[in-house]
Amino acid sequence: MHQFYPLFRPLLFALDPEAAHDATFRALDAAARLGLAQIVAPRLPRSPVSVMGIEFPNPVGLAAGLDKNAAHLAGLATLGFGFLEVGTVTPRPQPGNPKPRMFRLRESEALINRFGFNNEGVERFVANVKRSPYRGVLGINLGKNFDTPNARAADDYVSGLRAVYALASYVTVNISSPNTQGLRDLQSDEMLAALLVRLKAEQKALAQTHGRHVPLAVKIAPDLAPDAIRGVARLLVENGIEGVIATNTTIARDAVVGQANAHEQGGLSGRPLFEKSNEVIRTLARALDGALPIIGVGGILSGADAKAKIGAGAALVQVYTGLIYRGPALVAECVEALAHP
User: Fold this and answer.
1) Domain limits at 48?
2) pTM
3) Which of 124, 169, 192, 333 is the most exposed place for a label (fewest CB within 10 A)?
């Protein structure tokens, strides 16, 4: 898979981005079923790291959004990741926004997406995880349904947490996608405080029921002002949240003005997000002062980029858009780079 991706990329890039995504997963799933993906899987150095009380085989993970329904865990596990984060999943199935809803900005090695939490719902998601042979570290990313008002958003997150708790290594609360109307408002002090109180109470009850503690992380936007980032950090610490993921996609377009597809609505990811997300990580790291770990994501396209995220203050990193531009070789490159600081 790793060595062949550069040959296949022009063919994939000739397809609509969402169609290319589906075709890649079909090939990866078939290779995993036949045992071929395992044969050509990279032999990577073990560089274990303990974060949120979890032992990660290496610090390079898959970001949420690529495998929304947890339907491709076995194939993704062959690419060398230290952990997989899947979702975003909502309590009820929903189709997301109308197609086309994913666009390439090749000049900037970037994507714009406005999927809108398209997924098959938490019941199907849970069945997929249970059926999969994957036994590695699994993060599960939760969202709210698009038609659930923010006043009742906590009900959706609590419902999701109950459904996935037994299967997750950690659970991420996604309040930062720009593609569900009003979702980012949940990052405001008052709404975030109320949401975290509900989630921590539920986490405590579930830990007693299941006899194990599953950490909670919150995923934030790159478009928050420094004061707002510091406000989020304070609330995370006050409420005993175990991790923070920085960052989701950006609604800013200053780095891609004039490029094809730059006008499309949605969240921008890839190279133009790199420094913006690093700045959020640095602000968070100063505000948190080691109180909880940061998972850095946004614009990683090389091993050096992964090291820069760690240098900014992240304990773990995740990739998504870089995987589409660089292919599976990016994972190995990042793992190698972080194993040899």
Assistant:
1) 40-339
2) 0.96
3) 124
